[in-house]
Amino acid sequence: VQNVIGPKAPGSLGECLRAPGGAPHTFVGPAEYETDAGYSLKDIHNARVTGSIQPSAVVFATEEAHVALAVSCAFRFGKPVYGRSGMNQYEASCAGTGAGCVVVDVNNMWEVGWPSSGCQSGQSGCVASLGPGLSLGSAYFELSKRGYTIPAGACAWVRVAGLTLGGGQGWLMRKYGLLIDRLRAVDVVLLNGTKVRVDENTEPHLFWLARGGGGNIFPGVATAFHFELVPMPVSPATYSMEWAATKECRKTLPALWYERMAMHPDDDLFAKLWFSNSGQPKVAIDVTYIGEDKRSAEELLRAVGAASACGAATRIQMTPNTTWTSVVLGANDGDERIGAPGNNNCGWDLSGPTPRRTACQGYDTSYANQWASRSLVTGAGGRIPQGVWDALAEDIMYNGYFVEIEPSNGFAGTVAKDATAYPHRDPGSVTLQIVMASSGDISSVVHQSAETMRAITAHVPRLGYYNYLDKNMHQYSGLPRDAYYGSNADAVEACDVGELVQHPDAPKTKKYPTGTGTK
Ligand SMILES: Cc1cc2nc3c(=O)[nH]c(=O)nc-3n(C[C@H](O)[C@H](O)[C@H](O)COP(=O)(O)OP(=O)(O)OC[C@H]3O[C@@H](n4cnc5c(N)ncnc54)[C@H](O)[C@@H]3O)c2cc1C
Is NADP given among the entry's keywords (predicted)? Predict the structure, then answer.
C-alpha cells in the first residue's frame, strides 16, 4: 500500500495530521498537548525521563489508517516518528536527537484477532493477532478463554509492542522461548507511511529487526503482532522460599540456584532468584512449574535452600495446584481488574475531547514514579564465576532495593544467535536486572548501580537485555551496541537506524537502508 498522502500536501504538520482520515485526537505543539489536569499528553510512565520527551505532535490512533496518515505526515515534514504503547520505557524515545518527533500512541489498539476457525482448547498451530497496545494482563485473560497464552512477562500493564520489539522475557521462556520466538508476522506502517506485513518472506530484514532490535530504533509503527500461541499451562505449581539476606546467604545461594535450578534440564521448571528490601532485606527463589513431576520441583527448591548458608527460611509457600490466571494475578498484587473485560490497565481514555490518563493496576503504579534499569546477560557456556555473586553480595541493599535474576535459557537458548536481532542464545544464559523505582529522586541509586555493574562485570562480559534499556551504560564502560546486540551488532548497525547502535567511530547517519525515511 502506498503512502497515503498525495502530491498536494497540506501546508503545515497540523493541517496534514488533521486531514480527512486522521485521528480525531491529534494534538500539535505544547499548547495543545499540555493539559490542566496535572499531566501532559506526551508523558510516559517514568517521571525520571518524561520531561526530556519533546514532540511536535501527539496523535492518539485507534485504527491503522490513523497511524498511516500520522506517519506519512511526519515523513512529509521531516519529523522522526515514535510509537507509544504502554509508556513503560526505561529511557525516553523522542528525546535528545529524537526531539521534534510525532508520537503515535497506539495504546487503544488492543484487539485480539482470532482466525475464523480453529484456535480452540489450546490446540497447536493457532496464530492470532494482538494489538500493539494490548496489556499483558488483558492478553493473559483473553487468551485463557480458549486455553492459550503467550510466553511473556509478569507485569500486567506492560504492552505487547515494546515488549516484543525488544525480545520479551518471561515465565515460559525456558519452555517456549522468548515472545519473539513465537512471532510469525508484524503489521507495520513504515516511516514513509506505507503499510506492510513483514514476515520471513516479506521484508525479512525488518522482521529480523522486529525480533529484539528494540522499540527505540524500530523504523516504523507496528499496528499488529501475529503470534503462534502456546497452550495455557493447565495446573501449574508455584513454590516460593525466602531467607534473611545475610552476606553468607547472598554468597552461597546464587551459585546453587544457577547450577541446580537455572540450568536444570527440565524446561518445565522456571526458578527466579531475587533480592529485595522493602523494610527487611531478603533473598528469595520463586518457582513456577508447569510439568508433571511437581514433587521433584518442590524438593529441589528445599534442597537448594538447605545446601546454602541461608539458614532457616523466613517464609515458605508451596502451592502445587493453581491456575494460570492465578499465577498472573499473584504477580500483580492480586488485583482482579487487570483481567476485567473492557479494561486494558493504565492508558488513555478517549471518550472526551481531551484524552484522560487512566489509573494503573498492579505494583508501583504511580505515574509519578521514577524508573531506571541496568541488566546483565551472563552464563555463556553454563558457567558464572563466583566473583559475580561475591560482588553482588557486597551491594548495599538500600530501602527499595530490587535485583532479580531469571533463567533466559532453555528453548530460548537453543535458537540460533543470528536468527533474530536478540543475540543472547546460550544454554547457560540468565538475565540479571537491577530495577530502580521510587516516588522520589533515584539518582543516588542509579549511581550505586553503576558501581555494582562495574564490580560484577570485572568477572564477565558487559552484555545486557535491550528491554532493560540503559543509556548510561558508559558509567561502567559498557557499550550499548555490543551489550544489547552482541554478535549481531554489525548486522543491526547495517540497518543504520540510530545512534544507540552505531559504533562510536561511525559517522552519525540515521537512514534506514530501504529508503523508508529517517529516525
Ligand atoms: C514494571 C515493568 C515490568 C517489566 N517486566 C518485563 C518482563 O517481565 N519481561 C521483559 O522482557 N520486559 C519487561 N519490562 C520491560 C519492557 O519490556 C519494556 O519497558 C518495554 O519497552 C515496554 O513496552 P511498552 O509498549 O509497554 O512501552 P512504550 O514506552 O510504549 O514502548 C517502549 C518502546 O517501544 C516503542 N514502541 C511502542 N509502541 C510501538 C509501536 N506500536 N511500534 C513501534 N515502536 C513502538 C517506543 O517508542 C519505545 O521505544 C518491564 C518494564 C516495566 C516498567
Answer: no
